[in-house]
Design brief:
2 copies of one chain form a homodimer. Chain A is an alpha/beta fold. Chain A has 2 domains: 190 residues, inorganic pyrophosphatase (n-terminal core); 123 residues, Diaminopimelate Epimerase, Chain A, domain 1. Helix content of chain A is 38%, strand content 17%. Chain A contains 11 helices and 12 strands. In chain A, the strands form 2 sheets. In chain A, strands 1-6-5-4-2-3 form a 6-stranded parallel β-sheet, covered by helices on one side. In chain A, strand 7 and strand 8 form a beta hairpin. The first copy, chain A, is elongated and about 65 Å long. At the A-B interface, helix 6, helix 7 and helix 8 of A face helix 6, helix 7 and helix 8 of B.
Chain lengths: 319, 319
């Protein structure tokens, strides 16, 4: 992949038409916001542009997707957004894996699958790059585009909380609000809406919470039975992995999820002086220093005992 | 109170010395951030300035308060920040209630207790005004000042979520990050830290959750017994009032808190087409359209029954 400047990417897009924009499977706010936002922008120039995601877009994003009904055309230029590797394409998007002309991404790990690409690993979201791209293209950002791009920014930064946030992130958010982005409603939809099933699941999970005697290790478990009884969707367990690490005094938070065939999938989150990936490596897993994972194929009580013991040992060693 | 421009307020502060800065009781992030931030800024000009809050400042703000050890002097100029009325002064701050020289505030309801005042009801936080003030005074904002002011902004906006956020809010946040504000750590401390007691309380409260048959009214209760058993502090119940309204399909969320002498203090949050203040008025209470309160002096089950019935009736009427 030839690494190009954003100016060059803008020039390419200005020259092309019948543009297909690919997004990754299990689309999140940044994929949807970047893909649909770019499609809206290109259409505002009189071009034909369609976003394409192999998976169904969750209906929570309908305020974005409803603004971009599919046109349908034989694509002449293939763009990908927020896509680190074509392995993350799904369904009808897979057929374009080998023919991506232009990639716009913020994953430092992008494996260079496209002909030309602009990758900024320091950008908190791909949507921030899209905003800069539209500015270079001198596209007038209307409130629908602003809503789409703002969605990408706020979701990929946990509502401006994560360590990827830069002053640019806030500056772009300000500009998008000036273009009409409804930040209050977007933040409400993205962060303050829970299904009854999720609340039900949270209640059950909190009941499983246990601490090491010194309170530095916290544990929760999500069983298949809980998923079934609560009716929660798989995606709704995501926020739960963070619960334990939010508790005062907790240095290692463990979330254990029951999978099929006797597997317990374990996620470990740790504070800086404790290496979660080392703990998980003991069980054949791995990951990052602050967040790692592994699997234990044992009975529930035994699995809990083993991972708790390993985490308690890691805390003691770090002291 | 003479309403003055921020430029005039800046001129006053530039001319004065031995400045005492008053904050309201039960200090929140905006009071602490504004008061201590302003004190740091004035000290950077070689002036003597002390912040004064009648209540103890919660230790979660120690990264701000530790930077401003009290000097102690006979004050010659009294400033208040984030203080809508002197009725909100407490302890040792009360004696200055009648002698506030300059008030800087963002409460539209400010009752004009000071000699001169700058009040901007459209500002999401008082801290935003402090930032503008320092810019006018051409004070070089260091990272401690930036952390203090950023804290005020993010806490009064629910981490950039509330409807009071403007593009200025984000623009100022960006500038503060450029001055060294550690937004990640501040957001973690302010929004992602919970005591074990609070988690314990949340678990108990979730267990009391009930819904109307159509799922449009949700109810939770916090009893004195739960407060005692969990060990949660009064301030830790705050976020809980919002839980019910976050649930998909819920139009009216009720939080009932047991007080002394058989009182149940009820908080009602509603969606736009339902008037919470009207519901609460039925029980002698009041408030805003979207958030109101009242008290019911009945036995717990009866109190719940009455407020649920009133909310269900309000939902039916709105349809």
């Amino acid at each position: 992949m030839e690494r190009i400047t954003l100016e060059h990417a803008a020039k390419l897009l200005s020259e092309k038409d019948d543009i297909l924009i690919l997004m990754h499977k299990s689309p999140d706010g940044d994929a949807v916001g970047s893909g649909y936002g770019l499609a809206m922008a290109l259409r505002s120039l009189g071009k034909r542009a369609d976003p394409l995601c192999g998976d169904e877009i969750p209906k929570v994003y309908s305020y974005i997707t409803d603004k971009v009904p599919a046109i349908g055309f034989e694509p002449k230029f293939i763009v990908s957004v927020d896509l680190a590797t074509t392995a993350l394409l799904s369904g009808s998007a897979v057929e374009y894996a080998e023919s991506v002309d232009l990639c716009i991404d913020h994953h430092g790990s992008n494996n260079g699958y496209a002909k030309e690409g602009y990758v900024d690993g320091k950008s908190a979201s791909c949507a921030e790059i899209i905003k800069k791209l539209l500015d270079i293209m001198q596209i007038s950002i209307d409130n629908d585009m602003a809503n789409a791009i703002f969605t990408g920014i706020c979701t990929d930064t946990g509502c401006f909380k994560f360590s990827n946030v830069t002053s640019d992130t806030h500056r772009i958010a300000a500009e998008l609000m000036d273009c009409g982005a409804d930040s209050t409603e977007i933040c409400r939809l993205m962060f303050d809406c829970k299904s009854r099933a999720k609340i039900e699941l949270e209640k059950m999970v909190l009941e499983t919470m246990e601490f090491s005697p010194d309170g530095k290790v916290a544990f929760v478990c999500i069983t298949k039975d809980m998923m079934e009884k609560s009716g929660a969707a798989q995606g709704e367990t995501e926020g739960i992995a963070g619960i334990t690490k939010q508790i005062e005094g907790v240095k290692v938070g463990i979330t254990m999820r029951e999978k099929d065939n006797g597997e317990f999938r374990i996620s470990v989150r740790s504070s800086e002086d404790i290496d979660a990936s080392k703990i998980c490596a003991l069980f054949g897993g791995g990951g990052h220093r602050a967040a790692a994972g592994c699997s234990i194929f044992k009975e529930q009580t035994e699995a809990k005992k083993e991972i708790m013991a390993a985490c308690i040992a890691a805390v003691e060693e770090a002291e």
